[in-house]
Write a structure and sequence with these properties.
It is a single chain. The chain is of the alpha/beta class. It has 12 helices and 18 strands. Strand 17 (about 385-390) and strand 18 form a beta hairpin. Helix 4 runs parallel beside helix 5 (about 195-210). The longest helix is centred in the N-terminal third of the chain and has 17 residues, at about 85-100. About 50% of the residues are buried. Bound molecules: zinc ion. Zinc ion binds near residues 64 and 110. Zinc ion (ZN) binds near residues 64, 66, 109 and 312.
């Protein structure tokens, strides 16, 4: 198969803070063949495609999505009343929006087994335009608990173990557990734990036995504590909610950092809804909580906790083609550099997933590549100016 060589003013491999000025990336058989400085290409530079004032970087990894959730203002209503076929169509369309916006891998954190595993297969087969899919399928939740409408409802250690085994049998790449209630689901309590420490440990241990890791949705601090004690791989949201608001706890944050647990803050979720309410002059009851949450996340970051980025796409007014917002907010609110922000949605994401196949630009990695106009190292906003999206060597978008 032919070798494709791309040239650009900036090439970022996403392994550190450094980038290559006037660099190249070579692709062969769906993999990256080489990366380096243009001057080292020699005569091979003559057949290369020059993108000019552009940045080449790894395709983005959105670490938290829900393929069938509508992302509309009545997201819960849609989740409860959509037909199965409508859900499937939403999933296919959302996957298309993601890949067109430069996201070459999604980690889906809760979608009905039969839908998400079918989308994963269709994507792998090239049947639909979609990112690579890494999926939990059904979540583990308590009876009537958060997202029970795509969950296995379990209430005891034995039931939890059985559900882990059922998910692995169905094809889960990892196990997602709702460690606390959530805002989307009525009659749940986001501030309290849905599973105790023994149950969380049983879920993590049995998942590990089967070669899977656990991602835990945690708003309330009691849920965070149980997830940390059980040593889950990733904590989603990590909101430090308590009965009367938000209360950040440094010792808990220290333990998260010490145990190497990744936090996916889902910065972008709710942000477009907030902007819309502000524009319409609607009173936003969550405004104060949001500021406290941003403050907690900044402290977590300063503690040295490893972040990965995911936007909870599918939830109320949260789009699959708006993942870049999470990286922008990371720069704006926690003071991350562009390089650091990009790593949370590329190399660090792949590391959290546990894969050596993607997430950075290096020989032998999957050729999942994004090229954008301008210098994304100076301005993370450049990630929206898409020139090329390449998935496993196949061109999905070409605006160059
Ligand atoms: Zn979620």
């Amino acid at each position: 198969m032919a070798v494709t060589t791309l040239l650009a003013k900036t090439v970022f491999d996403a392994t550190g803070d450094e980038f290559i000025r006037d660099g190249f990336v070579q692709i062969e058989n769906g993999k990256i063949k080489a990366i380096g400085r243009r001057e080292d290409l020699g005569s091979a530079a003559s057949g290369a495609r020059d993108l000019g004032d552009a940045t080449i970087l790894p395709g983005l990894v959105n670490m938290h999505t829900h393929l069938t959730l509508s992302g509309s203002r009545q997201c819960l209503h849609d989740a409860l009343y959509d037909t199965y076929e409508q859900k499937m169509m939403r999933a296919v369309e959302h996957a298309r929006q993601a890949i067109m916006s430069g996201v070459t891998t999604i980690r889906d954190c809760g979608t009905l087994d039969s839908i998400v595993f079918s989308v994963r297969q269709a994507s792998a087969d090239g049947l639909i335009a979609a990112p690579h899919v890494w999926a939990s399928g059904n979540v583990l939740t308590s009876t009537g608990g958060h997202c029970y409408f795509f969950g296995n409802e379990v209430d005891t250690v034995e039931e939890a173990r059985r559900a882990v085994r059922e998910q692995v049998k169905a094809g889960a790449d990892f196990v997602k557990v709702m460690a606390t209630g959530g805002g989307l689901t009525p009659n749940t309590n986001p501030r309290e734990a849905q599973f105790d420490e023994a149950q969380m440990k049983a879920i993590v241990e049995d998942s590990a036995r089967l070669g899977r890791y656990v991602a835990a949705h945690c708003h309330g601090t009691p849920g965070i504590r149980n997830a940390v004690a059980a040593q889950v791989r990733t904590i989603e949201h990590c909101s430090f909610m308590v009965p009367d608001g938000v209360h950040y706890e440094q010792p808990v944050a220290d333990e998260v950092a010490e145990k190497g647990i990744y936090v996916c803050p889902t910065f972008g979720v709710g942000e477009r809804a907030r902007q819309w309410m502000e524009q319409e002059g609607i009173d936003n009851p969550f405004a104060a909580t949001r500021n406290q949450r941003v403050d907690s996340l900044r402290k977590l970051w300063d503690t040295g906790v490893k972040f990965v980025s995911g936007n909870d796409a599918g939830v109320t007014m949260t789009r699959f083609d708006d993942f870049q917002l999470d990286l922008e907010l990371l720069v704006e609110h926690v003071g991350a550099s562009s390089a650091q922000a990009i790593r949370t949605g590329t190399s660090q994401a792949a590391e959290a997933i546990g894969s050596d196949d993607f997430g950075s630009l290096a020989p032998g990695k999957r050729a999942d590549i994004l090229a954008v106009r301008g210098n994304a190292m100076d301005d993370v906003g450049a990630l929206r100016n898409i020139l090329l999206v390449i998935k496993s060597g196949r061109t999905m978008v070409d605006n160059a």
